[in-house]
Amino acid sequence: MLNIRKIICVFSLFMSSLIVVGQIRIQKKANLKYDNLAYIDAIESYEALVENGIAQDQIYKRLANANYQNANYQESAKWYQLLFAMEPTSYVGEDLYKYGVSLRSIGDFETSKIWMEKFSALYGTEETEDQNSLVYLKKINQQSGQYSLKELSINSEESDFAPSYYLQQLVFASTRDTGIIAKRINVWDKKSFLNLYANMVPKGNDDEQIKLFSKDLRTKAHESSTAFTKDGTTVYFTRNNFHDGDFGRDKSGISRLKILRADLVDNKWTNITSLPFNSDDYSVAHPALSADEKTLFFSSDMPGTIGSSDIFKVAINTDGTFGAPTNLGPHINTPARETFPHITPTNILYFASDGHPGLGGLDLFATELKVGKKLQIINLPRPINSEQDDFSLIINESEKSGYFASNRIGGMGSDDIYEFMELAPVQFSCYTDIKGWVTDRESGKKMATAVIKVMSLDNNKEYNIQNVQGNFQMNIDCDFDSLIFKVEEEGYESASITVSGGYKEVLDSIVVSLQKKTEPFKVGTDLFKVLNLNPIYFDSNSSNIKQLSYADLDKIVQFLKENPQYKIQVRSHSDSRGSDTYNQWLSEKRAESTVQYFTTRGIEDYRVSGKGFGETQLLNECSNRVKCSTALHEINRRSEFIVVE
């Protein structure tokens, strides 16, 4: 009996070891598939591991991202929820953001708002107060009815998107299987590689007229998103990094996207060349031509990109050469994705983004690119946008019609092309109704005799504003950058507050509190506390000050201008993450950058100095090798503004 028990025990251990070895093998294969962007296969393997009781935050994270990359937002939200329930330490801000987008895309706006706020708090993004809130959604819904919509019969059961105008044709990209082209499968989403097709009728409503656009441009790689010159003799289009029958790849094995140009000669597309700013190390895709054909807009993750992908523009010289690509900047580009630009003859830029506030997934936005005019980013209302991905919009302004693609519920395939009619133009002009009141800081009572002055930082223009029993109100075109409200009252310290422009039509609850005059500030006083400033944020591992901190630094500028008798020292501190030497260096650079901010705004250099302390003056016990939460480390990462004279 004893021998039998030993045999059973040994056999059980042997079988258990086989199971463990098998699971390790499956996970290695799943990781390899994921790293090679074979997301659908990776999902199947990871789900098999979970079904067998393997619960790891890394598996949940990869399941969430793989589903997110394929716009399976219901599934990505599920796996992100399981990931964060484990309280992982390995997540990054991108995970918080993608969870928020996934929740928004399935209609859970309130929970999405919570996670977006966590992302904003931890990573210092310029999340607006109403982003993801029901207030903003109500604003979007109030604009609905500006468009009528219909799905086209050219759609297939596969992916159809990226429409473009070509003479009297509609050219688009599709993964459909015509039976004519040898079918090759893309491991990312298990769909066929993209090819270009053309609908040979003007309005795109006869699927029998669809044919392959050109054999001259077709390869074994993806071809998509075209932009044609008006005479139809030049095309810019997107293709994988593919040359002489082989895929070019970056160091991680990814075949990036490139924009190519071709000329029509004797009814044949020839002179196919790669644009000079393409690279094996990043993607350049989705071209759009300006009306004068002197500027090319495109999407890329090239160096200098703010988010996952940004929109750039580049000059096309008269000799056919190109200038240097220029990023369109942080008003348009966000830490997330901006892609599929389209520019109209009136310089309205349409683009897709999941970084600006919207309904979910990629939404379509519009903005006017006019010199001297503040950019207003407009979310196109329903039925253009939905809770799913909406992208690759083109419009004929003279006919007030256009096309875009969406993977919304109810379509024929995974992505479908829709035709729309513009019933009312996009409204970019708006006004801001600013309301607030003045109070005594100690008692909270309203101050009816305080004098209120308003200065525009755009043009130094002053506005008259009336104090009515401690209340004030003004109406201004919301095409402004910043306003400074300065309030004065005898026996009180003057106070000011900066209001930034934005999409809000009503901005209320501005409270300016006045403090009774006290003794002069003593040496050692920290203006950060006295002026009740928000934390000063910098770009990650950089001394570049984030724009959202300008308003707080401007309060110190205002204080120093109003009190020329004071001198201050900027003291920059880091947390303990990273080496002591690096943290010391970075804090010194950030102190220098902050001092430079003040001197470039008119503060004499002898009145401000800076010093970096690295991690030598921690406010808690989170020193080297002490495990602490992100929030505790955040306490140590600070700037002080100490009165020294």
From TrEMBL:
Gene3D superfamilies: OmpA-like domain, Tetratricopeptide repeat domain, TolB, C-terminal domain. The keyword Transferase does not apply. Keywords: Cell outer membrane, Membrane. It comes from the Bacteria. One of its GO terms (cellular component) is cell outer membrane. It is found in: Cell outer membrane. Residues 525-645 form the OmpA-like domain. PANTHER family: LIPOPROTEIN YIAD-RELATED, STATOR ELEMENT OF FLAGELLAR MOTOR COMPLEX. This is WD40-like Beta Propeller Repeat. It comes from Arenibacter nanhaiticus.
